[in-house]
Design a protein that fits this description.
481 residues; four-stranded antiparallel sheet; 11 strands; 51% helix
């Protein structure tokens, strides 16, 4: 199969802001500074933005995740699926450009960002320590399953695979509950914990200093200032008992964090992967938010943009209609009487009497028609008819038409003073300005490389793994000999 069988190089380059480059020992660069690389590359790396690699697996994860809800995901091995992949690749390229730009502008040095990374680090370490160390694996043996079956299942109930799986799940849940029941006891083994319940009395909140010690863990103090925000909340029951329970949970988390670091969970590859992903995604989101504040359009700019691009913003009124087209007015009137009397349906009339060559297949359904796009007489009739009412006959160059309105969509975004119209116009402006910003990064600041041979190979491999679909004869030819 010749190179790049699914998606053409020009289309790919348009999506990625590149121009095709002939294979050579030293790859040429276009005016954007981007390159398309041919030759041996890592098996799954399909592009790079600066020093940031982009893998094919990243696109597959996005393709199958909630991140692309609303996108139509075509089946594997199709040109349409590869076009969706290229759209996602373009989004990943833009995200990486913003990431590198954020690093160069020192966004990662911001105290807010550093604080969020630290909070994520601590919560992830606590979660991993609880799962990996305190809970750990909960294996259920075949012997345990059979013992439960023999002692608890009604006689004469056959043992099946599904029953065995249900018993295994039940036993694993029981083991989990046992582990959780003594989790605090096991966690605090060898740790000295004391809580001063006198200092948790809600009646004393107004007189208590921030540096008042409310608890100690191995003599390390926990002050009122550290825990006030988690103890004094709208959900606070206002009792020493409720605050003690919350404080105990806080202490457990602190101990788990200390022990997680003591066993070097920070070196765990899964932890590092999750942390790096959070750092990158959070930095991109923060940088994008800051850029939006800079490029925020003024009210006058929004009004001017709406005036210039109104045809892209407004949604014209439309009707989903069904029609029967006939040669003579008298015939159309007769058919209309038959439909209105219930003698035939409009679907039957379209199939039997319409001169529209597609009517036998469409049964007269014409889809959505926007106001002002059809013959004037038909347009006037379609947009004056009530829902589910037969109108006509009315003449056009094609013949005499009977029309039924199946669904109505009112015009929208027709006035910039409407809140929805204003929001849509603002979003479009911000999106265009953000696209211009990332296009400049791509052209003037960071090198973008596409590994054409790798992408081509992966597309071809998928095509080879997808069984060919049998050809289906058109409806009129099925069963023909």
């Amino acid at each position: 199969m010749p190179g790049f069988p699914i998606v053409s190089i020009p289309l790919l380059c348009t999506l990625l802001g590149m121009l095709p480059v002939a294979a050579s020992a030293a790859p040429a660069a276009d005016e954007t500074g981007a390159q398309i690389i041919t030759g041996e590359q890592p098996s799954d790396i399909i592009a790079r933005v600066g020093d940031q690699p982009i893998s094919f697996n990243q696109i597959e994860i996005m393709l199958n995740s909630s991140g692309v809800i609303g996108m139509n995901i075509p089946p594997p091995g199709t040109e349409e699926r590869n076009l969706v992949r290229l759209e996602l690749l373009d989004k990943i390229v833009s995200a990486n450009l913003l990431y590198l730009d954020a690093l160069d502008k020192g966004v990662d040095k911001a105290p807010v960002y550093q604080h969020e990374v630290e909070r994520f680090t601590e919560s992830t370490l606590v979660s991993m320590y609880r799962q990996k160390v305190l809970i750990g694996d909960l294996p259920v043996s075949d012997e345990e399953i059979m013992a439960y079956y023999e002692n608890n299942i009604v006689d004469d109930t056959p043992f099946t695979k599904d029953l065995g799986m249900a018993i295994e799940a039940k036993l694993r849940k029981q083991k989990y509950q046992v582990r959780m029941a003594d989790l605090r006891k096991r966690l605090r083994e060898g740790v000295s914990v004391s809580i001063d319940e006198v200092q948790l009395d809600p009646a004393q909140d107004g007189d208590r200093d921030s540096d008042t010690v409310v608890a100690r863990v191995d003599q390390a103090p926990i002050t009122w200032g550290e825990v006030r925000t988690i103890l004094v909340t709208p959900k606070d029951a206002g009792t020493v008992e409720s605050r003690t329970a919350v404080l105990n949970d806080f202490i457990d988390r602190r101990i788990m964090l200390q022990k997680a670091r003591a066993v070097n969970l920070e070196a765990d590859p899964k932890f590092q992967q999750r942390l790096n992903e959070f750092r990158k995604l959070r930095l991109i989101a923060m940088h994008r938010g800051q850029l939006v504040e800079v490029i925020e359009p003024t009210d006058d700019e929004i009004r001017a943009y709406y005036k210039e691009h109104r045809d892209r913003i407004t949604i014209p009124a439309a009707r989903r209609i069904q029609m029967v087209v006939m040669t003579a007015k008298e015939d159309a009137e007769k058919v209309k009487q038959q439909i209105e009397s219930g003698e035939i349906t409009i679907y039957e009339a379209a199939q039997e009497f319409s001169i529209d060559p597609n009517a036998k297949k469409t049964l007269g359904e014409m889809g959505w028609v926007e106001h002002g796009t059809g013959f004037p007489e038909l347009d006037e009739l379609a947009f004056s008819l009530p829902l589910n009412t037969i109108g006509g006959p009315v003449e056009s160059p094609a013949g005499w038409h009977l029309v039924k309105v199946l669904e109505i969509r009112e015009a929208a975004n027709t006035d910039i003073s409407q809140a929805d119209t204003w929001r849509k116009t603002r979003r479009m402006m911000i999106k265009e300005r953000m696209n211009e910003y990332t296009a400049d990064l791509r052209k003037n600041h960071y090198k973008v490389e596409l590994y054409n041979d790798v992408l081509n190979r992966l597309f071809e491999e998928e095509m080879g793994q997808v069984p060919a679909q049998p050809e289906v004869a058109p409806p009129g030819e099925q069963g023909a000999s």
